[in-house]
Write the structure tokens for this entry.
Amino acid sequence: MAKTNLLKNDHRKCAWKSGVLAFSILALISACVLKEKGQPEETFGWTWESGGNLGGQAGVYGTKGTASSSNVPGARGYTVSWFDSSGKPWLFGGHGYDSASNSGHLNDLWKYNPTTLEWTWVAGSNAVDQTGSYGARGTAAPTNVPGGRDTCASWLDSSGKFWLFGGYGFDSNGQGGWLNDLWKFDPTSLEWTWVSGSEAMGQAGVYGTQGTADPSNFPGSRYGAISWLDSSGRFWLFGGWGLDSAGAAGDLNDLWKFDPTTLEWTWVSGSEAMGQAGVYGIQGTADPSNFPGGRNASASWRDSSGTLWLFGGEGYDLAGNLGQLSDLWKYDPTTFQWTWVSGSNTINQAGVYGTQGTASPSNVPGGNCGASSWLDSNGKLWLFGGRGYNSSGNLGSLNDLWTYDPTTFQWTWVSGSNTIDHLGIYGTQGTASPSNVPGGREYCFCWLDSSGRLWLFGGKGFASRGVQNFLNDLWNYTR
């Protein structure tokens, strides 16, 4: 599954290894009916709202800045997303199809209104593989725009600005590779600002002194890192696949912090060299010597107390073996310590599913990368799809839905299958049904709305036919 010529030599990335990979999401199949006295029955399940059901669809852009029911982003995966002050989701770039059905790296910015069910093309190009236009560092301009790219890290600051770091795509010279540029987008002025990092791809990390901020520090170019925002408004970045301090490429386990006030990076912990094995310590016990191994394409959450949770990805286990991981970690940004919470410290583990709907201390998802994740209003962690190992130890497209309760420390297999590889069942557009289900996919864009519905867009995987491709179908699930 080669992305383009840009990725022909990228053999480590989970989603783009040579050969056809199957990625899966089958979802929350529920036939539950809420029936209250005097109230009509309500149908629960998935609703296919818009987009294609075949895969590989071109984008319908319409007029820039104007919402329309006929607008829809082209099929794509590996996008980055944010939410504005009114709760509307935005998505940027990824890898997929433009308005002319060309496949490549995108730099278009879209906004979706879940009330009117309309997309708006806000900024960027409707053509793939655009060169970045950086302008002057620190200065917003209507002509500034990041180049086409995918698998970036992102943050939303307290003032509602969108932030974007790195990924894999095109620099200011039109060269494709790993990036370490940091951008800010103002959804009011609709202008991008190049904040820090290089306008050229392929930069080695400049680590400086651990624990000390410095204007010359920068994480190396990378994609597939995880990111989160702490209570003080600082940005955090962990791992990914990219370049270490010596310019060597591989899976990283470095942890960084960025202060948007001083515009300085701090190397907090982890190694400045790629390919590090995990140091697990005692399960359930925090220790300053504990560190997850180098990895990319992990799932992550930030809970209400500010703790970071990290699950799996593709990377290195305790013995330094490279594969799919099933370990769950948490990081406390006040003590600066990692805790190995659950899962295995060895790669490529089969999932232990137990009884569907029943939590158990022995349950654990199999080794997995490229899954989607979200945090519900009760503080539970949810994990959805990705490429990994099922209950029989077979590797392929997973469609299982899991939840993890951080108070009981137990996983629950909620729905989906404990086998691999499924197609989508679309039903009638706009109509929920317990039999509807999105096809298997990875790196889709998903979010929870204020009503608790799950929304899911695109990704790389399967539509209604057995051909793996980029997708642009939009779904919501009422639970």
Summary: Residues 339 and 431 are 44 Å apart (CA to CA). The radius of gyration is 21 Å. Confidence is low (pLDDT under 50) at residues 1-42. The chain has one domain: 5-478.
